[in-house]
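name: query_chain
kind: protein
chains: 1
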Amino acid sequence: MISNATGDEFSRESSVDFAVNAVNSSLGLPANKSTTLWEGINNEIQLNDSIVYSYNPDLESDPYGEDGTLWSFNYFFYNVKLKRILFITCKATSLSEHYSGNSDLGFYGNITLDNDDDDYIEDDVRYQGSPIFG
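structure:
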């Protein structure tokens, strides 16, 4: 696959915390789930020693630019010492677009948070292929 991405579509973020907060906010993660996610990521890439870049493509080259996409984010965490790159990407797609058959959305349904013990309860959730989180 050939990419038409240009250097001006990438920007260095001011801090790891900025990207972490942006991801948490976009995903609507509660604090306890967020901590678990970032502890796992930190074990692999050591976030405090990483540089963060975001990929912000123009509409023509955006891989998520199809109809029904509500928002997306793309972050690269680069640890020079460990020679590791972590790429985190996500998109939100309109359910109406999915139900019309025009989306490649791999997950849809309702997930609610049980306020008693902060466990996720799945209600009417379907997966296409392998889910990212099980």
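note: The first strand starts at residue 10 and ends at 12.
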